[in-house]
Known about the structure:
- Its EC number is 3.1.3.-.
- The chain is α/β, with parallel strands linked by helices.
- About 45% of the residues lie in helices and about 10% in strands.
- The chain has helices at about 25-35, 45-50, 55-65, 70-90, 100-110, 120-130, 155-160, 175-185, 200-205; strands at about 10-15, 110-115, 140, 170-175, 190, 210.
- A six-stranded parallel β-sheet has the order 3-2-1-4-5-6, sandwiched between helices.
Amino acid sequence: MNNYVFQNIELVIFDMDGTIFDTERLGFKGWQHAFAYFDYDVPIEILKKKIGLNSKDSKNLIQQYMGSDFDYTSIKEEKRNFVRNYIDINGTPIKSGIISVLDLLDLLGIKKAIATSRGHTMANYYIDKSNLRDRFDLIVTGDMVNKGKPNPDIFLKTSEILNVSNDKCLVIEDSPNGIEAGKRACMTTIMIPDLIKPNSILMKKVDYLFDSLNDLL
Protein backbone atom coordinates (compact mmCIF):
# COMPACT_ATOMS: atom_id res chain seq x y z
CA MET A 1 0.00 0.00 0.00
CA ASN A 2 1.33 3.43 -0.99
CA ASN A 3 -1.34 5.70 0.48
CA TYR A 4 1.39 7.16 2.73
CA VAL A 5 1.83 9.71 -0.06
CA PHE A 6 -1.33 11.43 1.21
CA GLN A 7 0.07 12.12 4.67
CA ASN A 8 -0.03 15.85 5.52
CA ILE A 9 -1.87 16.53 2.24
CA GLU A 10 -5.04 18.65 2.23
CA LEU A 11 -5.64 18.91 -1.52
CA VAL A 12 -4.97 16.51 -4.39
CA ILE A 13 -4.93 18.16 -7.82
CA PHE A 14 -5.45 15.80 -10.74
CA ASP A 15 -4.54 16.42 -14.33
CA MET A 16 -7.39 15.26 -16.56
CA ASP A 17 -6.31 13.74 -19.90
CA GLY A 18 -4.11 10.70 -19.37
CA THR A 19 -4.51 10.84 -15.58
CA ILE A 20 -8.22 10.65 -14.75
CA PHE A 21 -9.43 9.85 -18.24
CA ASP A 22 -7.85 7.50 -20.76
CA THR A 23 -8.19 10.21 -23.41
CA GLU A 24 -4.57 10.89 -24.37
CA ARG A 25 -4.59 7.85 -26.65
CA LEU A 26 -8.01 8.75 -27.99
CA GLY A 27 -6.89 12.32 -28.70
CA PHE A 28 -3.68 11.07 -30.23
CA LYS A 29 -5.66 8.87 -32.61
CA GLY A 30 -7.89 11.84 -33.35
CA TRP A 31 -4.94 14.02 -34.36
CA GLN A 32 -3.52 11.25 -36.53
CA HIS A 33 -6.92 10.83 -38.20
CA ALA A 34 -7.32 14.57 -38.78
CA PHE A 35 -3.88 15.07 -40.31
CA ALA A 36 -4.34 12.01 -42.54
CA TYR A 37 -7.82 13.24 -43.55
CA PHE A 38 -6.27 16.45 -44.89
CA ASP A 39 -3.30 14.53 -46.34
CA TYR A 40 -0.66 15.91 -43.95
CA ASP A 41 2.20 13.96 -42.46
CA VAL A 42 3.17 15.03 -38.93
CA PRO A 43 5.77 13.04 -36.96
CA ILE A 44 4.60 11.27 -33.83
CA GLU A 45 7.23 13.11 -31.78
CA ILE A 46 5.63 16.45 -32.66
CA LEU A 47 2.25 15.18 -31.49
CA LYS A 48 3.78 13.91 -28.25
CA LYS A 49 5.17 17.37 -27.53
CA LYS A 50 1.58 18.65 -27.49
CA ILE A 51 0.72 16.56 -24.45
CA GLY A 52 0.03 18.76 -21.44
CA LEU A 53 -0.05 22.01 -23.44
CA ASN A 54 -3.04 24.33 -23.57
CA SER A 55 -4.84 25.10 -26.83
CA LYS A 56 -2.81 28.22 -27.65
CA ASP A 57 0.56 26.57 -27.05
CA SER A 58 -0.52 23.46 -28.99
CA LYS A 59 -1.44 25.61 -31.97
CA ASN A 60 1.88 27.44 -31.81
CA LEU A 61 3.79 24.16 -31.68
CA ILE A 62 2.04 22.74 -34.75
CA GLN A 63 2.36 25.98 -36.72
CA GLN A 64 6.07 26.18 -35.92
CA TYR A 65 6.42 22.82 -37.64
CA MET A 66 3.85 23.21 -40.44
CA GLY A 67 4.15 26.95 -41.10
CA SER A 68 2.11 29.96 -40.01
CA ASP A 69 -0.35 29.63 -42.93
CA PHE A 70 -1.27 26.08 -41.90
CA ASP A 71 -5.05 25.64 -41.40
CA TYR A 72 -4.91 24.51 -37.79
CA THR A 73 -8.58 25.32 -37.15
CA SER A 74 -9.88 22.79 -39.69
CA ILE A 75 -7.52 20.09 -38.44
CA LYS A 76 -8.54 20.69 -34.83
CA GLU A 77 -12.25 20.58 -35.70
CA GLU A 78 -11.84 17.25 -37.51
CA LYS A 79 -9.93 15.86 -34.54
CA ARG A 80 -12.61 17.12 -32.15
CA ASN A 81 -15.36 15.47 -34.21
CA PHE A 82 -13.45 12.18 -34.16
CA VAL A 83 -13.18 12.28 -30.37
CA ARG A 84 -16.76 13.43 -29.83
CA ASN A 85 -18.12 10.64 -32.02
CA TYR A 86 -16.33 8.09 -29.88
CA ILE A 87 -17.35 9.59 -26.53
CA ASP A 88 -20.97 10.18 -27.57
CA ILE A 89 -21.24 6.43 -28.18
CA ASN A 90 -18.98 5.03 -25.47
CA GLY A 91 -18.74 7.72 -22.78
CA THR A 92 -15.47 9.16 -21.53
CA PRO A 93 -13.01 6.32 -20.84
CA ILE A 94 -11.72 6.53 -17.26
CA LYS A 95 -8.41 5.31 -15.93
CA SER A 96 -8.27 2.14 -13.86
CA GLY A 97 -8.21 2.93 -10.15
CA ILE A 98 -9.58 6.49 -10.26
CA ILE A 99 -12.87 5.64 -8.52
CA SER A 100 -11.08 3.83 -5.70
CA VAL A 101 -8.59 6.69 -5.26
CA LEU A 102 -11.42 9.23 -5.07
CA ASP A 103 -13.18 7.03 -2.51
CA LEU A 104 -9.99 6.88 -0.44
CA LEU A 105 -9.54 10.66 -0.53
CA ASP A 106 -13.15 11.09 0.61
CA LEU A 107 -12.44 8.74 3.50
CA LEU A 108 -9.32 10.73 4.42
CA GLY A 109 -11.16 14.05 4.17
CA ILE A 110 -8.84 15.39 1.46
CA LYS A 111 -10.09 17.92 -1.09
CA LYS A 112 -9.97 16.98 -4.78
CA ALA A 113 -9.62 19.18 -7.85
CA ILE A 114 -9.03 18.90 -11.58
CA ALA A 115 -6.52 21.25 -13.23
CA THR A 116 -6.52 20.64 -16.97
CA SER A 117 -4.88 22.42 -19.89
CA ARG A 118 -8.00 21.75 -21.92
CA GLY A 119 -10.47 24.60 -22.46
CA HIS A 120 -13.70 24.69 -20.47
CA THR A 121 -16.02 23.54 -23.29
CA MET A 122 -14.29 20.23 -24.00
CA ALA A 123 -13.21 19.71 -20.38
CA ASN A 124 -16.79 19.97 -19.16
CA TYR A 125 -17.96 17.73 -22.01
CA TYR A 126 -15.48 15.02 -20.97
CA ILE A 127 -16.37 15.34 -17.29
CA ASP A 128 -20.13 15.28 -17.86
CA LYS A 129 -19.81 12.19 -20.07
CA SER A 130 -17.89 10.44 -17.28
CA ASN A 131 -20.43 11.12 -14.50
CA LEU A 132 -17.58 12.19 -12.18
CA ARG A 133 -18.38 15.89 -11.80
CA ASP A 134 -19.71 15.62 -8.24
CA ARG A 135 -16.56 13.81 -7.11
CA PHE A 136 -14.46 17.00 -7.29
CA ASP A 137 -14.49 20.19 -5.24
CA LEU A 138 -13.20 22.32 -8.11
CA ILE A 139 -12.44 22.18 -11.83
CA VAL A 140 -9.94 24.66 -13.28
CA THR A 141 -9.47 24.74 -17.06
CA GLY A 142 -6.66 26.05 -19.22
CA ASP A 143 -8.56 29.13 -20.36
CA MET A 144 -8.91 30.32 -16.76
CA VAL A 145 -5.21 31.23 -16.51
CA ASN A 146 -2.86 33.35 -18.62
CA LYS A 147 -0.03 30.84 -18.92
CA GLY A 148 -0.41 27.10 -19.37
CA LYS A 149 1.72 24.22 -18.16
CA PRO A 150 4.72 23.98 -17.66
CA ASN A 151 4.04 27.33 -15.96
CA PRO A 152 2.56 26.83 -12.48
CA ASP A 153 -0.39 29.22 -12.88
CA ILE A 154 -3.16 26.62 -13.07
CA PHE A 155 -2.01 24.83 -9.91
CA LEU A 156 -1.50 28.08 -8.03
CA LYS A 157 -5.00 29.23 -8.98
CA THR A 158 -6.48 25.92 -7.82
CA SER A 159 -4.82 26.06 -4.40
CA GLU A 160 -5.73 29.73 -4.01
CA ILE A 161 -9.43 29.17 -4.71
CA LEU A 162 -9.60 26.24 -2.28
CA ASN A 163 -7.48 28.11 0.29
CA VAL A 164 -4.84 25.41 0.72
CA SER A 165 -1.14 26.22 1.09
CA ASN A 166 1.05 24.90 -1.71
CA ASP A 167 3.09 22.66 0.59
CA LYS A 168 -0.14 20.82 1.47
CA CYS A 169 -0.97 20.13 -2.19
CA LEU A 170 -0.25 16.97 -4.16
CA VAL A 171 -0.27 17.03 -7.97
CA ILE A 172 -0.94 13.83 -9.94
CA GLU A 173 0.19 14.10 -13.56
CA ASP A 174 1.09 11.98 -16.57
CA SER A 175 3.10 14.51 -18.60
CA PRO A 176 6.48 16.24 -18.25
CA ASN A 177 4.82 19.64 -18.71
CA GLY A 178 2.47 18.90 -15.83
CA ILE A 179 5.22 17.70 -13.51
CA GLU A 180 7.29 20.80 -14.28
CA ALA A 181 4.29 22.99 -13.48
CA GLY A 182 3.71 21.16 -10.20
CA LYS A 183 7.31 21.59 -9.08
CA ARG A 184 7.30 25.29 -10.02
CA ALA A 185 4.22 25.62 -7.81
CA CYS A 186 6.24 24.08 -4.93
CA MET A 187 3.84 21.16 -4.64
CA THR A 188 4.48 17.46 -4.15
CA THR A 189 4.28 15.58 -7.45
CA ILE A 190 3.29 12.09 -8.49
CA MET A 191 3.86 10.96 -12.05
CA ILE A 192 1.87 8.09 -13.51
CA PRO A 193 3.18 7.92 -17.10
CA ASP A 194 0.76 7.44 -19.96
CA LEU A 195 2.11 8.07 -23.46
CA ILE A 196 5.39 9.67 -22.37
CA LYS A 197 7.88 7.87 -20.15
CA PRO A 198 10.04 9.98 -17.82
CA ASN A 199 13.69 10.55 -18.72
CA SER A 200 16.54 10.98 -16.25
CA ILE A 201 16.10 14.77 -16.12
CA LEU A 202 12.39 14.52 -15.36
CA MET A 203 12.98 11.85 -12.73
CA LYS A 204 14.88 14.41 -10.65
CA LYS A 205 11.72 16.54 -10.47
CA VAL A 206 9.27 13.76 -9.61
CA ASP A 207 8.64 13.04 -5.94
CA TYR A 208 6.87 9.73 -6.59
CA LEU A 209 6.60 7.54 -9.68
CA PHE A 210 3.92 4.86 -10.01
CA ASP A 211 2.67 2.68 -12.84
CA SER A 212 -1.03 3.10 -12.10
CA LEU A 213 -3.53 4.88 -9.89
CA ASN A 214 -4.12 1.47 -8.32
CA ASP A 215 -0.64 1.74 -6.80
CA LEU A 216 -1.90 4.58 -4.57
CA LEU A 217 -4.35 2.34 -2.74
